[in-house]
């Protein structure tokens, strides 16, 4: 079918909400002379008859009538004039509408006749979605997976919304963190390689990143102890000494409230702590550590407030110690060697460049294997090593336009205080780039490469401020794509024991996690039975499909901005809000369609034209299926794959209810059987459509 014909079919679809809204507007205007009224429709509550409910409260004041009177008048009008409402009931300020079966059938058929139902009309705009953006000093981990799945799913959703989408990856392959892995390998790793060790390349490099941090801590510990005791300050510059002494004084000042807070905790309060945390409390108070964790276990009360106060004091102390550590760390031999390696890299020293290329090559191959495993690919890959110098011309442009200014030390900056931001340096006084210099240049490069209208950055919420500054700068510079820049900010993924830390090797490795998910999927699938007859190869593929589906769904079903707690066992659920439940309903539909073909059941429109006794569960399911385009549009406008995940669960639940309420192959009539097969087929189409938007595969058998 021609694209224009597709669009015509799409526009002819009987959208129930739109149709009802227009008829209700006509009713308000005809009956009461109310022009351009706001119409609020919602799903009817389960305890009442109907599919759609109109809220009547907005009309009480302008019409000066009781809600029952308004509802009855509108209801009578819709039954007599609209042709889509069969009956109604009014409950206080709610008008519950029941549609005619003809309306449901017409809508269902229009939906079935559109082979691209769910896709919105094409828009002449290009959108680049940048996601993943890993560092080449470690393998992908659980946090990366949330980023990757969000980016991939959003790309699919925006394509369904009619945009031309370019999936991009900016790999951070240079910098001090990369040199840490290189230095540790140079000192202790050679000649180990992925081939000689049997370790995946990105894992091998990550191993040396962790090794560097362990060695650094060993060197740093005695130096920190000396500084905290106000000794050995001779190795620092005068400016550093002043900063250190100020921090040390603040720590001393903070000790006083600590002592006072301890004195205020009475023995009675201490003994009244819940028995299960008493030992933990004693240990906590003795070591002056972990107040924040303890306060979560306490009941509300004065003692909890005191503990919370101690937690705040401890956090402030830790912040000052962190400031000290940053200065002291730079004086360690290891950090000075890493800094020297970075300088040699920027100077193009042959042996450093050679080692960098070799180790990055191992990581790139490791990344490729991980991306292939989880079903992700990119249209364009940028490398920070090629882009970090970009933006210097933009800094000069900003100076010439008077948008940027020069600091006394020669640094280029922009004052954004009027926008609630700070003054931001966009280029150092020595002419070298800072992070935002690169991002300004890369933003222009993306436009030069693809002529994009929108640019979406999928990056964690710790970079919220950075992107506010970047977007403000590009708008002030008059970039055509400036208004289309968007930061898809997402919360961190936490584990039951707290945050992940790459340097300490406490992250959940992406490859290991996928393997563990496959083990859980196999275990739970076997518990259900019915898979014994499948060949081993097909079973292995099924376990992988279930595992990856469960993982993706679990990470996508939560609104992006929310921090989430990850539990692998909860994600593999065949009976609740999880991908396996959705996948299972799709597989069940495929089984029904195979039986229909085997039994030669016809399910075209002509085969059920005389079916006149639609069950409520059938109408409910059609109502859910009809909202697919609206859900796609909502997810695209909100940049929220969670909308699609929630909708997929709603569809699966709707089908499960229909399947329980309505016999298919033992239906009372041949027409009912044909219609129910057709309804199953359309549900299967919808489930496959939405799961594809989430990057989840649909198994034919489960």
List the helices and strands and how they pair.
Elements: H1 3-12, H2 16-32, E1 41-43, E2 52-55, H3 60-63, H4 67-82, E3 85-91, E4 94-99, H5 101-112, E5 126-130, H6 142-160, E6 164-171, H7 176-188, H8 194-197, H9 201-228, H10 238-264, H11 267-271, H12 275-287, H13 291-297, H14 302-329, H15 333-346, H16 350-374, E7 380-383, H17 384-387, H18 392-401, E8 405-406, E9 412-415, E10 423-427, H19 435-450, E11 454-460, H20 464-476, E12 485-490, E13 493-494, H21 510-528, H22 536-556, E14 564-565, H23 568-571, H24 579-598, H25 616-626, H26 628-638, H27 641-661, H28 670-693
Parallel strand pairs: 5-6, 5-11, 6-7, 11-12, 13-14
Antiparallel strand pairs: 1-2, 2-4, 3-4, 8-9, 9-10
Helix pairs in contact: 2-4, 5-25, 6-26, 7-9, 7-15, 9-14, 9-16, 10-14, 13-14, 18-19, 21-22, 24-27, 24-28, 25-27, 25-28, 26-27, 27-28
């Amino acid at each position: 079918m021609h694209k224009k014909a597709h669009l015509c079919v799409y526009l002819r679809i009987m959208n129930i909400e739109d149709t009802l809204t227009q008829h209700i507007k006509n009713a308000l205007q005809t009956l009461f002379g109310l022009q351009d009224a706001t119409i609020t429709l919602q799903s009817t509550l389960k305890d009442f008859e109907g599919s759609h409910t109109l809220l009547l409260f907005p009309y009480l004041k302008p019409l000066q009538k009781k809600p029952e009177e308004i509802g009855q008048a509108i209801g009578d009008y819709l039954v007599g004039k609209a042709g889509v409402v069969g009956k109604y009931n009014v409950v206080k300020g709610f008008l519950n509408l029941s549609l005619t079966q003809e309306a449901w059938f017409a809508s269902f058929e229009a939906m079935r006749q559109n082979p691209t139902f769910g896709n919105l009309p094409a828009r002449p705009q290009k959108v680049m979605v940048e996601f993943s953006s890993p560092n080449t000093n470690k393998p992908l981990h659980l946090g990366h997976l949330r980023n990757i799945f969000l980016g991939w799913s959003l790309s699919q959703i925006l394509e369904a919304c009619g945009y031309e989408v370019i999936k991009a990856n900016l790999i951070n392959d240079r910098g001090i963190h990369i040199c840490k892995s290189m230095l540790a390998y140079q000192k202790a790793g050679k000649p180990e390689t992925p081939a000689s060790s049997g370790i995946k390349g990105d894992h091998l490099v990550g191993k040396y990143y962790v090794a560097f941090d362990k060695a650094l801590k060993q060197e740093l510990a005695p130096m920190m102890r000396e500084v905290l005791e106000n000794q050995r300050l001779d190795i620092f510059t005068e400016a550093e000494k002043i900063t250190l002494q100020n921090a040390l004084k603040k720590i001393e000042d903070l000790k006083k409230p600590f002592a006072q807070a301890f004195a205020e905790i009475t023995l009675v309060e201490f003994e009244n702590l819940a028995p299960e945390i008493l030992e933990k409390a004693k240990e906590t108070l003795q070591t002056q550590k972990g107040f924040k964790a303890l306060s979560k276990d306490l009941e509300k009360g004065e003692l909890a407030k005191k503990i919370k106060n101690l937690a705040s004091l401890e956090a402030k102390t830790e912040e000052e110690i962190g400031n000290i550590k940053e200065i002291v760390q730079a004086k360690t031999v290891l950090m000075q060697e890493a800094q020297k390696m970075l300088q040699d890299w920027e100077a193009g020293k042959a042996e450093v460049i050679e080692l960098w290329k070799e180790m990055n090559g191992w990581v790139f191959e490791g990344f490729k294997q991980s991306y292939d495993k989880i079903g992700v690919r990119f249209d364009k890959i940028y490398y920070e090593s090629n882009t970090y110098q970009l933006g210097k011309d933009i800094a000069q442009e900003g100076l010439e336009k008077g948008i940027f200014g020069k600091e006394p030390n020669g640094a280029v900056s922009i004052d954004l205080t009027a926008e609630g931001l700070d003054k931001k340096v966009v280029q150092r006084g020595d002419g070298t780039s800072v992070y935002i210099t690169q991002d300004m240049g890369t933003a222009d490069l993306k436009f030069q490469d693809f002529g994009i209208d929108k640019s979406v950055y999928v990056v964690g919420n710790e970079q919220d401020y950075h992107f506010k500054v970047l977007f403000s700068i590009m708008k002030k510079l008059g970039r055509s794509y400036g208004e289309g820049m968007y930061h898809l900010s997402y919360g961190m993924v936490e584990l039951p024991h707290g945050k992940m830390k790459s340097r300490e090797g406490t992250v959940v490795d992406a490859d290991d996690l996928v393997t563990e998910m496959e083990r859980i999927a196999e275990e739970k699938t076997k518990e259900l039975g019915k898979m014994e007859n499948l060949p081993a190869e097909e079973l292995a593929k099924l376990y992988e499909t279930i595992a990856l589906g469960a993982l993706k769904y679990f990470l996508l079903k939560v609104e992006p901005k929310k921090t989430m707690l990850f539990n692998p066992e909860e994600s593999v659920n065949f009976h609740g809000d999880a991908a396996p439940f959705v996948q299972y309903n799709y597989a069940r539909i495929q089984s029904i369609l195979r039986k229909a073909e085997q039994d030669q059941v016809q399910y075209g429109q002509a085969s059920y034209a005389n079916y006149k006794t639609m069950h409520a569960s059938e109408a409910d399911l059609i109502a859910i299926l009809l909202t697919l385009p609206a859900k796609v549009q909502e997810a695209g406008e909100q940049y929220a794959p969670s909308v699609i995940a929630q909708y997929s669960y709603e569809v699966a639940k709707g089908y499960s209810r229909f399947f329980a309420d309505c016999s298919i192959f033992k239906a009372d009539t041949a027409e009912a059987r044909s219609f129910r097969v057709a309804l199953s087929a359309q549900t299967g189409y919808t489930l496959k459509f939405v799961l594809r938007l989430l990057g989840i595969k649909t198994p034919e058998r489960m």
